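Q: I'm writing up a methods section and want to include an example of the input and output format. Could you take the sequence below and give the corresponding predicted structure tokens, formatted cleanly so I can copy it straight into the document?
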Amino acid sequence: MEDSLRLQSFDQLPSAAQFASQIESRNVPAVFVGCVKDWKAVSKWNPSNGGLGYLEERVGSFMVEAMLSQTAPVFYGDLRSHERVPLPFSTFIGFCKWHRQNVGNSCSINSNSQGHQLGESDTEQGCSTFVDAAPKQIYLAQPAILEGKNLSSINLWMNIAQARSSAHYDPHHNLLCIVTGRKQVVLWPPSASPMLYPMPIYGEASNHSSVALENPDFSIHPRAQCSMEYSQKVTLQAGDALFIPEGWFHQVDSDELTMAVNYWWRSSIMSSLADHMDAYYLRRILRRLTDREMDQVLLKGSTPTWRQESNVDHSLDQAGQSKDLKRKEQEQHSLLLHELRPCALQALHELVALVHDRVNASDQNQPVSSDSTNGLMCSKTNEQDKTLTTEIFHLEEDPVAKILWILEPGIFKDIFLAMAHNFPRTLEALVLHLLSPVGAEVLTRKFDEIDQQNTEENQNKFYQIFYGVFDNQFAAMDAILNGKESFARQAFKNVLDKYVGGNFDVPKLSVGRDIS
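A: Here is the clean output for your methods example:
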């Protein structure tokens, strides 16, 4: 858990201005210890002090909505697993009294002062208005930190037996105030969504996690094994309040006969979003998440260990050295093998050996042909035989990408200049036939690194030498860009799976299409 996301704790209630500028604006949870302890309800509603009889007398005639769950004591977001039952509040209180004397079935009540819509954000919903209708009887006051807020709803939550809500997030800021009993809340930042496997965004319970955290099946939800590493726990006693920012997942465990009131309001960010900008923000956010996903895939890659041998097979691809493709100009900017640093020579050897081994393996499976009368013979691929093509998206699975990934920009440049001068057909085979999606991403990132360290003139010279090796330079560019786009496409699919939920088929880009 990043320090910037740590739960804050306050013994004194800040002013409304301080709350808005220093707490709410950071979108990080905060607990306010004892901030509502002066509510008369804290003592008058307490079941140990005759609070159930007090509530029955004052508001027992009001109709409320209770939720009966087939999965009690856990209340999941799946609307099919529970039933909402309207009943007089006095009837529910009767169940509470009975439970104090006997072990009963789990049941939960929610009273919503503004007719909260079914399936919008919470785990247990209702439509009773007695919170609004009888303010004098229920002894509640809006906390001072909410002065000036345009509240979306005020809700009363009450459970008979111990209960747990499944992990979910709300589309509003939330101030949860404990009146009687105790709640333990586990919190996850929105960035932990991949570990919680949110329900598909098109579903009725899209704000809920699909993982049963009390008994997770890691074969179905493997990322959930890391979920608790991103979590924070807080225990709330009567009189405490917890600020839960919008989008933060939270799982709530309630002791028996716990009562709480919460306030929902729209965040300033959501309130300020203009409808006509939604599509743009959606694309920007998806692009940011996709870029971050690609970074994470590369950072997970392992670092190869170089073998200590340094003998390069100089006979390999010597025929390609006779190709007269701007050779005299290239030689002025190319490196001879004996000029390479030992680490660069070793990396070059590794790359040449990989291409040689793959081509030899291909030779055993199909006839060999070549794009040129000079140089290394490369096997052709077709739809039935993908001998030389590969769809690798993980760095640790691609030996070529692993070698390139750890190279410093200067060494990378020296290696490819030496390869273009000494092994041009090997370089051609590497790019056209062995370059995987992750390899193409690594290659272009290394290009960006050497660009940052060189003048525009030197950049142009390098790319003239690099692409001058290929009979068809556009085919080489297409191979690199297609691989790079394929890598990004897989990262995008990962983003949809982790953050949106559901299975999506992402179409491939057409060849030569501009994605800038």
